[in-house]
Design goal:
Number of domains: 2
CATH class of the largest domain: Alpha Beta
Protein name: Hexitol phosphatase HxpB
CATH architecture of the largest domain: 3-Layer(aba) Sandwich
GO molecular function: 2-deoxyglucose-6-phosphatase activity; mannitol-1-phosphatase activity; sorbitol-6-phosphatase activity
Oligomer: single chain
Family: Belongs to the HAD-like hydrolase superfamily. CbbY/CbbZ/Gph/YieH family.
Cofactor: Mg(2+)
Distance between the termini: 7 Å
Shape: globular
Keywords: Carbohydrate metabolism, Hydrolase, Magnesium, Metal-binding
Structural class: alpha/beta
CATH superfamily of the largest domain: HAD superfamily/HAD-like
Length: 217
């Protein structure tokens, strides 16, 4: 029986993936890294420091540290989130549906806590989640399951009794590795990819989350 719902943030709660893409496309060329839009799409859901380290190994630069490049990208994303407040359709509906079903609700994101807090402030969601967790300080981000396991522990619920709501395949792998039930809501252009079949349910939007669906998990 499902006792808790754990929400991803980027791409699920907020339409921030285009901002992560924009920030990378703006910042990486300033340190001499050649990067395409497809490159940014291919790393969706992966922690930004891991992305920066990957490009540093492939195309090393000398002008900034990896940490400084991470901060440049992150600060640009925060600016864009605060400016546009890009909430995904059905977010409040999905949260209310989970709460009405008696589920504990947590947030588990690969993003740094400063961006998580900026997002919660922008969307006026402070106090909605019983636990808010970032993979920022963990040895590995998603697809490693640790941030999801930590969310279950914070809620004092077994991962087996949790459902994770995700948009990316990277996040879906993390949730499945944590042995959680999964609902995936992929970006429309990727929705038909066969790999999303590993999710328990694939939906078109958060508006499709229902109490009947939660009970069926």
């Amino acid at each position: 029986m499902i006792k808790a719902a754990v929400f991803d943030m980027d791409g699920l709660m907020i339409d921030s993936e285009p901002y992560w893409q924009q920030a990378q496309l703006e910042v990486f060329p300033t340190v001499g890294v050649k990067i395409s839009l497809q490159d940014t799409i291919d790393t969706t859901g992966i922690r930004i420091d891991q992305i920066v380290e990957q490009y540093y190994r492939q195309q090393p630069w000398e002008t900034h540290t990896c940490e400084e490049v991470c901060d440049m990208i992150l600060n640009r994303v925060i600016e864009l989130v605060k400016e546009h407040k890009p909430m995904m359709p059905g977010l409040f509906h999905a949260l209310e549906t989970c709460q009405q079903a008696g589920l504990k609700v947590a947030l588990a994101s690969s993003s740094p806590m400063v961006l998580i807090q900026a997002t919660l402030d922008a969307l006026e969601l402070d106090g909605v989640f019983e636990a808010v967790l970032s993979a920022e300080g963990l040895p590995y981000g998603k697809p490693h399951p640790e941030v999801y396991l930590n969310a279950a522990a914070a809620l004092e619920v077994s991962p087996l009794d949790c459902v994770a709501l995700e948009d990316s395949f990277t996040g879906l792998l993390a949730a499945k590795s944590a042995q959680m039930k999964t609902i995936v809501i992929p970006e429309a252009s990727q929705s038909e990819q066969a790999r999303f079949v590993i999710a328990d349910y694939k939906l078109a939007s958060l508006e499709a989350v229902t109490s009947e669906l939660l009970q069926a998990l």
